[in-house]
Each structure stands twice: as structure tokens, then as C-alpha cells.
Amino acid sequence: MPFRRNVGQQQHRRVQEQEATISQLKSTSTNREATISQLKSTEAKQETTGAEQQKEIKALAATVKQQASQIQKVSAQLEMSKSAPQTVLNSQ
User: Fold this and answer.
1) Chain segment 44-68, per-residue pLDDT in tens
2) How many angstroms separate the Cα of 17 from the Cα of each of 5, 6, 26?
3) Strand, coil or helix: 85
4) Would the pTM of this model clear 0.70, i.e. be above it?
């Protein structure tokens, strides 16, 4: 009978080890699922941020174009005023 008791104890230990392994795997799986959820949330936030940044970039580009146009107009006016004949009054 000691042999059967020893075999039974070994099987019981194996079952306990397997249950511990299963518990660890479940915990690992739960942690991975939480990590995946966090990564998906981060990805969604980054996509939103990226879209907002694209809008801001387009607005800034439009502003730069408008300012460049204004600079060209002022430069042209400046050139015209430089080339216009100036009369000097001689006071005697």
C-alpha cells in the first residue's frame, strides 16, 4: 500500500503544479489583454492627435502663403516708390 499512497501523492502534486501553471497562464493572459487594451487606447489617442496636427499644419501653411503674398505686395509697393521720380524743392 505504501506504493499506491506514494503514487497518489505524486499525482496530487502534479495536479497542484498543473493548477498553479494554469493560474499563472491565466494571469499572464489577463495582463496581456490589459496591455493590448491600453495600446489600442493609446493608438486611438495618437490617431486623433495626428489628425488635429494635420489640420493645424494646413492652417499654418495657409497663413504662411497669405503672409508671403502680403510681403510680395509690400515689396512691389516699395520698389514702385523707390523708382518714382522725386521732385526737390529749391527754396531761395
Assistant:
1) 999 999 999 999 999 999 999 999 9
2) 18, 16, 14
3) coil
4) no
